[in-house]
Design brief:
Layout (H helix, E strand, L loop, with lengths): L2 E7 L4 E5 L6 E4 L2 H10 L1 H10 L12 E8 L2 H5 L15 H24 L15 H16 L14 H15 L15 H22 L4
Parallel strand pairs: 1-4
Antiparallel strand pairs: 1-2, 2-3
Helix pairs in contact: 2-4, 4-6, 4-7, 5-7
């Protein structure tokens, strides 16, 4: 069976995102390149799925079925999937929600392991840019505190060395997402559950992979 994906098509960048595997979402300068990037990341996403007690089929990247194309935005062109597809209005069963929440928790576990094993200073980009390890970790926590508002939660951004506060924030987010949903936004001007868990998980893994790629030993 073809793996269902949707394409978020900006003028400069296209995101290809799996509908069934939150966080498995990559971009390229065209639809074809975005799908190629998605396929190339199967070996990197599979260990995250395993941490969640799931198994990404080896054939997952053999054929993609594009079920929807959505126009991108400035956020898309900047480098993040920022448009909610119509498919995300589909009701979410309790079983699906638990599976998705487990994948989100697995992405946090994976990210923490990458951060713990990375040097404080990372290789710079071609123009000398890029955050170092601790600034990336702080950025991820800040983004999650902001994302939490889209779920109807008000959470203070935890410090990167406050393990108790980080765990509490993650537990609050996971508790909201680990529940059946009718597909409507979870808060006023918020996100539906399917989009929320995908955006959280994508952001965590995108930065985990960035740290891996920019570590001197990579």
């Amino acid at each position: 069976m073809a793996t269902p994906v949707y394409l978020e098509c900006g003028s400069k960048r296209v995101f290809a995102c799996s509908l069934d595997w939150p966080g498995w979402c990559r971009s390229g300068k065209s639809e074809e390149l975005a799908l190629e990037a998605l396929a190339a990341y199967v070996p990197r996403y599979a260990p995250v799925a395993k941490l969640a007690g799931a198994e990404l089929p080896a054939s997952a990247s053999e054929e993609f079925g594009v079920v929807e194309r959505v126009p991108g935005s400035a956020t898309t062109n900047f480098g993040a999937p920022g448009v909610i597809p119509a498919a995300d209005a589909t009701p979410l069963t309790s079983g699906e929600a638990s599976r998705f929440a487990a994948l989100l928790r697995a992405s946090w576990t994976y990210f923490d392991g990458v951060v713990a094993g990375a040097p404080a200073e990372l290789r710079k980009g071609p123009r000398g840019g890029g955050r170092d390890r601790d600034k990336i970790a702080a950025h991820v926590l800040g983004a999650e505190a902001a994302y939490a508002r889209k779920l109807g939660l008000r959470i203070r951004e935890p410090a990167i060395d406050d393990a108790t506060a980080i765990a509490a924030m993650r537990d609050s987010v996971a508790a909201v997402l680990d529940a059946a949903s009718d597909g409507a936004p979870l808060a006023e001007k918020g996100w539906p559950a399917r989009y929320a868990v995908r955006r959280f998980t994508w952001h965590v893994l995108d930065h985990a992979w960035e740290i891996e790629d920019r570590s001197p030993a990579a």
